[in-house]
Amino acid sequence: MESPRRVQQMLVVPFEVQKWSTLLSPNEVNQVATQLGPIGDFKDVKSDGYLVDALVHLWDPTCSAFRIGKEELTITIEEIAGFLNLPVQGTAVIFPLASNKTEFCRFTGLRESVIQGSDQNIEAKFLFDRFALRDGFERHRGDFSFTSKEIWDRKRVWVYGLVMAGTYLFPRKDKKIAFKLTKILYDLFLGIQDKPYSIIPTVLADIFIACTTCQKGKKFFCGSNLILHMWGMEHFMRRLSTSASLPMLAHNWVTTHHKRVKRDNLPCNASEFVGLLKNLTDRDIRWVLDWTSCTKPVLHTQASEFILLLGTQGITAYVPKRFLRQFGRTQEVPPTIDMSELTVLFNEEMCPDQLPMKDQIIEAWVTISNDESFIYVPEFQQKGLKTPQYEDWVTKSATSGQLDGSVEEVKRLKAIIESK
Asked: Which of 210, 17, 12, 286 lies closest to 131 in space, CA to CA?
């Protein structure tokens, strides 16, 4: 039996984070949900971390995919967007440029003098006492740079979003909230030129990069381990009795997650999970998740077969046409591109001001599109259909075959990376 290494994860969150959403009004919670999804409900998701350990062990960074038996799957933009009920099409790319203490204080309205030390992070409890509690403004009036209760009411919602994002989407080992996330929340709440931003590519990038870095020996999973856990449970541990026709719009997939997946007789450790996953067949997998929008998925950009993803930890990419079955389409032999060639890890986990491939990322995101040559047949979406050519190709090796014309695009982007 294989022995995957144990990966440290955000499995137990601070008490204040768990309680926070219960102290807000439904309207305040909904303001954050429109940008981050029902993120406050992540507090009820139970995970022992074993499935994530197993998935990290089965991760292949050359194709940004998990090797499940003889099959390949990955988390897609549509799966995260649908799960969180957030839009993707028509949104702008977030550039998570690192924010410092000054920018953090401008965002929260806190005086710099009340934040001790030079660390680029802060305890959730400190923010909880000043923004979550109803009397937080009156009790800590001297800590704020403003005197208006109306301003505090607005900042209160923003800070709640910052803490939830810093806990569940971009966690830290010390469970503190990083100042560097400030610009992301600024962009989400304020947008740019009335155009909304999407946090989905940022979340997906950090999950991919966390899988890669943890597989190489990093101890802490720096992406959203809970999203990865729920994704894996929904694909591989789905209850057979669950209805196949669930509502799509305005449905809270987080709070209902436990109703759709098996909870009894789960593997007792990561090794058992690896053994289970490696022995799954295509019939054991739920190929299309209930919330995945299959009508017009992101399959490529105008210039490339791969989608560049910018996260807080670095840049990575994936090829959606490698995972057509997750969009209810028949899987054909996909473009074969080494994604590890496009992975860039930021120094000190900070997005640099001089960002490599910035123009390419912007151009790619505004030209994402479907490919109408791949027909979607709803009646066949759970069949996991594939062509004989693909079956032969994936059985031999997912890395075999010649690189297609996109290799020139990879070389060009790699040159840009090296020049930076």
From this structure: 17
Rounded CA gap, 180 and 161, in Å? Answer: 14
Helix (H) or strand (E) run with residue 308 in it: strand 307-310
Identify the CA nearest to 105 among candidates 150, 149, 162.
162
Q: What 3-state class would DSSP assign to 417?
A: helix
Burial call 267-285: b when 16+ CB within 10 Å, e when fewer: beebbebbebbeebebebb
Structure token pair of residue 147: 């005197």
Are 56 and 7 in contact, with CB atoms under 8 Å apart? Answer: yes
- Cβ-based neighbours of 174, under 8 Å, separated by 6 or more: 121
Q: Which residues contact 244 (CB under 8 A, 6 or more apart)?
A: 382
Q: What are 96-150's pLDDT values in tens digits?
A: 887 889 999 999 999 999 987 767 899 999 999 999 999 999 999 999 999 999 9
Whole-structure pTM over 0.70, yes or no?
yes
Stretch (H or E) spanning 258: helix 257-260
Give the burial string for 374-410 (b: 16+ CB within 10 Å, else e). Answer: bebeeebbeebbbeeebeebbeeebeeeeeeebeebb
Task: Assign 239 a pLDDT band (cuts: 50, 70, 90).
Answer: confident
**DSSP H/E element including 392:** helix 388-396
Contact 139, 96 (CB under 8 A): no
Q: How far is CA 389 from CA 154, 332, 380, 385, 392, in A?
A: 56, 7, 19, 12, 5
Q: Name every residue whose Cβ is closer than 8 Å to that of residue 134 and which is 6 or more positions away in sequence.
A: 23
CA distance linking residue 14 with residue 167, whole number of Å: 9
Place of tokens 């856990």: 229
Q: Is 97 helix (H, G, I), strand (E, B) or coil?
A: strand
- Buried/exposed code over 337-369 (b: 16+ C-beta within 10 A; e: otherwise): bebeebbbebeebbbeeebbbeebbebbbeebe
Q: Is 102 exposed, middle or buried (0-12, 13-18, 19+ CB in 10 A)?
A: exposed
